[in-house]
Specification:
506 residues, mainly alpha, Fumarase C, Chain B, domain 1, 2 domains, 3-stranded antiparallel sheet, two-stranded parallel sheet, 9 strands, elongated
């Protein structure tokens, strides 16, 4: 059972819950913190004091005082008025991640909310009662207001949810699940819609994919290098040590392991070629930089998973309610932009290796990796697809976080566009997975064309996994299902799971 304490949630936890593990509860320590901060809010109301977001309007209307009798209506109005999202709905995985992150944000104990709010979020998670949340409409400051309002709508029995594969009214789904809609009290609606949980959920899952892609790039790139009769000298550990970057050392080690024990490699050890193209020779440098930058992004995202990004924040230990700007999404906006850049670079290099395999003058293999080129087109258009995807990724890599547009009558004058950055990063990662999947199929085809020579044990393990799903391309066939299969093997981590026990230890 995963216990949310607002401090120790990990990216592994995020993926596990996104994939359907709903055994999550609020830790008792967090429940006590939430109760203590709620008492501070109630004490303020009883004393007749004023605090932003508790008994005032919001944004530009923060100077308007609201009577205690109207506070529940104020929170309900806030949720309804902010539910303005448009565009495609988030996937079920992303919504589950979002429910988890919102509950964990409340579990920090700084929002002044009753524990029952977090309990309902986790109950919805258990019942797979998933709010329909449009992905467009947030500028990433004052929190992800519009998309989070759609989450909050479901909690008060409004809007639509996906429940049992059906899109139904939230009130109906709550009733069928045996749950009751919340009657929001002072501060609680604001706590639900404030925060960076939307952008963090989307960017966090994209990051997990990107980490998988980076390691997969090393493995697949190694297979391609072997199939193209490339030298492994560029992967020598002495070269990497001379520069010193840890990611470069890691990538080179994996690449060397992929060629270790290969009959193909041994067959051309005395060939006259001295150097290979950059897309092969410089993989340690490029892939290594990607590994190192991902390590930094892991730190940023893990911090944000456990951050309190509400406003105002309630500090129960000294009874203070402080208004600040933790809702501002800049850390995640810039991280998501960087993430898109990294997966784009990975895919760019992969596409160049694919193109290398298409050209018989460069590869020494049949044109487009088919034995009867002309009659058959082989992987010709698969490379075109890869080219299309990497060009799309170049557009997606334009940073969203360098943009800003004033909102709320200029009260919110500098915003982050973090939600847009996260959505772009997710698409760029999916595109990169498709490109690496194309390279994987091409590398397997090229290795088979080198028979009877065999690759090393690590490459052979990946080859056997692929061939159980995708046969050798003898004659032209519809390739779209094969490309989708390869992409899934990469995104689901099956390729990495298969090879980790097969890699040589030295």
């Amino acid at each position: 059972m995963l216990q949310l304490d607002g401090a120790t949630l990990t990216l592994t936890d995020l993926e596990r819950v996104a994939d359907g593990d709903s055994d999550v509860v609020v830790a008792e320590s967090s429940r006590k913190r939430m109760e203590a901060s709620r008492r501070v809010v109630n004490d303020l109301l009883r004393a007749g004091r004023t605090a932003y977001g508790i008994n005032t309007g919001f944004g530009k209307l923060s100077d308007v005082r609201i009577s205690n009798q109207e506070l529940s209506q104020l929170q309900r109005n806030l949720v309804m008025s902010h539910a303005c999202g448009i565009g495609p709905a988030l996937s079920a995985r992303e919504v589950r991640a979002l429910l988890l992150l919102k509950a964990n944000g409340l579990a920090t104990g700084y929002s002044g909310c009753r524990p029952e709010l977090a309990d309902l979020l986790l109950a919805m998670l258990r019942h797979n009662l998933l709010p329909v949340i449009p992905e467009k409409g947030s500028v990433g400051a004052s929190g992800d207001l519009a998309p989070l309002a759609h989450l909050a709508l479901a909690m008060i029995g409004l809007g639509e949810v996906d429940f049992g594969g059906r899109r139904v009214a939230a009130s109906e789904a709550l009733r069928e699940a045996g749950l009751s809609a919340m009657q929001l009290q002072a501060k609680e609606g604001l706590a639900l819609i404030n925060g960076t949980q939307f952008m963090t959920a989307v960017a966090g899952l994209a990051f997990i994919e990107a980490e998988r892609l980076a390691t997969t790039g090393d493995l697949v790139g190694g297979m391609t290098a072997d199939a193209l009769l490339c030298t492994d000298v560029a992967f020598d550990p002495r070269i990497q040590a001379a520069r010193g970057h840890p990611g470069q050392k890691r990538a080179a080690m994996t690449l060397a392991k992929m060629l270790a024990g290969s009959e193909i490699r041994e067959s051309h050890r005395q060939c006259p070629r001295v150097q290979d193209a950059y897309s092969i020779r410089c993989m340690p440098q490029v892939h290594g930089a990607i590994h190192d930058h991902l390590s930094h992004l892991r730190q940023v995202l893990t911090t944000e998973l456990n951050a309190s990004t509400d406003n105002p924040l309630v500090f129960a230990e000294d009874g203070q309610i402080l208004s600040g700007g933790n809702f501002h999404g800049h850390p995640i906006a810039t991280a998501a932009d960087f993430l898109a850049i990294l997966v784009t670079q990975l895919a760019n290099m992969s596409e160049r290796r694919i193109a290398f395999m298409m050209d018989p003058a460069l590869s020494g293999l049949p044109a487009f990796l088919t034995k009867a080129s002309g009659l058959h087109s082989g992987f010709m258009i698969a490379q075109v697809v890869a080219a299309s995807l990497v060009s799309e990724n170049k557009v997606l890599s334009h940073p969203a976080s360098i943009d800003s547009i004033p909102t709320s009558a200029n009260k919110e004058d500098f915003v982050t566009m973090g939600a847009a950055a996260a959505v772009k990063a997710r698409q760029a990662a999916h595109n990169a997975a498709a490109v690496l999947g194309i390279e994987l199929l091409c590398a397997c085809q090229a290795i088979e064309l080198r028979a009877p020579l065999k690759p090393g044990p690590a490459a052979a393990a990946i080859f056997s996994l692929v061939r159980r799903r995708v046969p050798f391309l003898e004659d032209d066939r519809i390739l779209a299902p094969d490309l989708q299969t390869a992409q899934r093997l990469i995104l689901r981590g099956e390729l990495l799971d298969r090879v980790q026990h097969e890699l040589p230890t030295a």
